Amino acid sequence: MSALPLLIEFWNKGIKVRVEGSELALTAPRGVLTPCLVSRVKNEKSALMVSLDKIRKKAGDDWVEVSNDPAQLKAFADLLAVSEMRERGIVPDHYTATTECKHCGLVPIFEGCPSKINGCPWCFNRLKGLPIPRAPHCEDYDDE
Predict the structure, then answer these.
(1) Which of 121, 122, 126, 138 has a 20 to 30 A CA-CA distance from 85?
(2) In terms of Cα–Cα distance, which of 103, 34, 106 is closest to 95?
(3) What residue numbers bound the domain in which 80 lies?
Protein backbone atom coordinates (compact mmCIF):
# COMPACT_ATOMS: atom_id res chain seq x y z
CA MET A 1 0.00 0.00 0.00
CA SER A 2 1.22 3.48 -0.81
CA ALA A 3 1.73 6.04 1.92
CA LEU A 4 2.01 8.94 -0.55
CA PRO A 5 -1.30 10.51 0.58
CA LEU A 6 -0.09 10.39 4.19
CA LEU A 7 3.25 11.96 3.24
CA ILE A 8 1.42 14.71 1.36
CA GLU A 9 -0.79 15.31 4.41
CA PHE A 10 2.29 15.57 6.62
CA TRP A 11 4.06 18.00 4.31
CA ASN A 12 0.91 20.13 4.08
CA LYS A 13 1.00 20.37 7.88
CA GLY A 14 4.69 21.32 7.87
CA ILE A 15 5.86 17.93 9.13
CA LYS A 16 9.20 16.82 7.68
CA VAL A 17 9.67 13.06 7.32
CA ARG A 18 13.01 11.47 6.52
CA VAL A 19 14.69 8.09 6.75
CA GLU A 20 17.65 7.74 9.10
CA GLY A 21 19.06 4.24 8.76
CA SER A 22 16.16 1.88 9.42
CA GLU A 23 14.08 4.46 11.26
CA LEU A 24 11.83 7.35 10.34
CA ALA A 25 12.57 10.78 11.77
CA LEU A 26 9.90 13.47 11.98
CA THR A 27 10.27 17.16 12.62
CA ALA A 28 7.11 19.17 13.11
CA PRO A 29 5.96 22.58 14.27
CA ARG A 30 4.92 22.62 17.94
CA GLY A 31 1.51 21.07 18.52
CA VAL A 32 1.13 19.61 15.02
CA LEU A 33 2.40 16.12 15.72
CA THR A 34 -0.56 14.68 17.62
CA PRO A 35 -0.67 11.24 19.26
CA CYS A 36 -3.00 10.17 16.41
CA LEU A 37 -0.42 11.16 13.77
CA VAL A 38 2.37 9.42 15.70
CA SER A 39 0.22 6.28 15.78
CA ARG A 40 -0.34 6.52 12.01
CA VAL A 41 3.42 6.80 11.46
CA LYS A 42 4.03 3.69 13.57
CA ASN A 43 1.29 1.76 11.76
CA GLU A 44 2.49 2.77 8.29
CA LYS A 45 6.24 2.96 8.87
CA SER A 46 7.20 0.44 6.19
CA ALA A 47 4.82 1.99 3.62
CA LEU A 48 6.18 5.46 4.44
CA MET A 49 9.74 4.24 3.94
CA VAL A 50 8.84 2.60 0.61
CA SER A 51 7.10 5.77 -0.58
CA LEU A 52 10.05 7.95 0.43
CA ASP A 53 12.37 5.55 -1.39
CA LYS A 54 10.23 5.83 -4.55
CA ILE A 55 10.50 9.61 -4.37
CA ARG A 56 14.26 9.38 -3.80
CA LYS A 57 14.64 7.15 -6.87
CA LYS A 58 12.53 9.47 -9.04
CA ALA A 59 14.48 12.52 -7.85
CA GLY A 60 17.76 10.81 -8.73
CA ASP A 61 20.75 13.15 -8.61
CA ASP A 62 18.51 15.96 -7.32
CA TRP A 63 17.52 14.05 -4.17
CA VAL A 64 19.58 16.18 -1.76
CA GLU A 65 17.95 19.37 -3.04
CA VAL A 66 14.48 17.80 -3.26
CA SER A 67 14.66 16.21 0.19
CA ASN A 68 15.24 19.60 1.81
CA ASP A 69 12.35 21.32 0.04
CA PRO A 70 8.84 20.31 1.18
CA ALA A 71 7.28 21.87 -1.94
CA GLN A 72 9.43 19.71 -4.23
CA LEU A 73 8.81 16.62 -2.09
CA LYS A 74 5.07 17.24 -2.33
CA ALA A 75 5.29 17.71 -6.11
CA PHE A 76 7.10 14.37 -6.50
CA ALA A 77 4.63 12.66 -4.15
CA ASP A 78 1.66 14.10 -6.08
CA LEU A 79 3.17 12.88 -9.35
CA LEU A 80 3.76 9.39 -7.99
CA ALA A 81 0.28 9.25 -6.43
CA VAL A 82 -1.31 10.08 -9.80
CA SER A 83 0.88 7.46 -11.50
CA GLU A 84 -0.18 4.83 -8.97
CA MET A 85 -3.85 5.74 -9.47
CA ARG A 86 -3.52 5.43 -13.23
CA GLU A 87 -1.79 2.04 -12.89
CA ARG A 88 -4.83 0.80 -10.95
CA GLY A 89 -7.19 2.21 -13.58
CA ILE A 90 -8.44 4.94 -11.25
CA VAL A 91 -9.15 8.30 -12.87
CA PRO A 92 -7.29 11.12 -11.06
CA ASP A 93 -9.55 13.94 -9.81
CA HIS A 94 -8.00 16.47 -12.17
CA TYR A 95 -8.85 14.36 -15.25
CA THR A 96 -12.05 16.28 -16.00
CA ALA A 97 -12.00 16.16 -19.81
CA THR A 98 -11.99 13.45 -22.46
CA THR A 99 -9.86 12.78 -25.50
CA GLU A 100 -9.86 10.31 -28.36
CA CYS A 101 -6.58 8.39 -28.17
CA LYS A 102 -5.49 6.68 -31.39
CA HIS A 103 -4.72 3.51 -29.41
CA CYS A 104 -6.99 3.57 -26.34
CA GLY A 105 -10.17 5.15 -27.69
CA LEU A 106 -12.20 7.68 -25.71
CA VAL A 107 -10.52 8.14 -22.33
CA PRO A 108 -10.57 10.60 -19.42
CA ILE A 109 -7.79 13.19 -19.49
CA PHE A 110 -6.73 16.48 -17.94
CA GLU A 111 -8.35 19.75 -19.07
CA GLY A 112 -6.65 21.41 -22.02
CA CYS A 113 -5.68 18.21 -23.82
CA PRO A 114 -6.54 18.17 -27.57
CA SER A 115 -9.71 16.28 -28.50
CA LYS A 116 -7.69 13.72 -30.53
CA ILE A 117 -4.19 12.50 -29.71
CA ASN A 118 -1.78 9.80 -30.89
CA GLY A 119 -0.92 8.62 -27.38
CA CYS A 120 -2.23 9.20 -23.85
CA PRO A 121 -1.19 8.42 -20.26
CA TRP A 122 -3.44 5.33 -20.41
CA CYS A 123 -1.28 3.90 -23.24
CA PHE A 124 1.21 2.80 -20.55
CA ASN A 125 -1.58 0.74 -18.98
CA ARG A 126 -2.55 -0.72 -22.36
CA LEU A 127 1.03 -1.82 -23.01
CA LYS A 128 1.29 -3.45 -19.56
CA GLY A 129 -2.16 -5.09 -19.73
CA LEU A 130 -3.47 -2.86 -16.94
CA PRO A 131 -7.00 -1.40 -16.81
CA ILE A 132 -7.98 1.60 -18.91
CA PRO A 133 -11.04 3.54 -17.76
CA ARG A 134 -13.38 4.54 -20.54
CA ALA A 135 -14.82 8.01 -20.83
CA PRO A 136 -18.58 8.10 -21.29
CA HIS A 137 -19.77 8.74 -24.82
CA CYS A 138 -21.81 11.88 -25.31
CA GLU A 139 -24.66 9.90 -26.88
CA ASP A 140 -25.07 8.04 -23.56
CA TYR A 141 -26.40 11.30 -22.13
CA ASP A 142 -28.55 12.53 -25.01
CA ASP A 143 -32.21 13.12 -24.20
CA GLU A 144 -34.54 10.92 -26.15
Answers:
(1) 138
(2) 106
(3) 4-87
Please tell me the total count of domains within the chain: 2
Q: Is residue 59 domain-shared with residue 118, that is, in the same domain?
A: no
Q: What are the DSSP E strand ranges found in 42-139? A: 97-101, 105-109, 116-117
92 in any annotated domain: no
- What does the H/E/C string look like for 33-64? CCHHHHHHHHHCHHHHHHHHHHHHHHHHHHHH
Length of the chain: 144
pLDDT tens figures, 56-77: 888 899 988 888 787 888 888 8
pTM above 0.85, yes or no: no
**One-letter amino acid for residue 103 of the chain:** H
115 belongs to a structural domain: yes
Q: Which of 10, 31, 120 is nearest to 74 (CA)?
A: 10
Instruction: Classify residue 107 as exposed, middle or buried by CB count within 10 Å of its CB (0-12, 13-18, 19+).
Output: buried
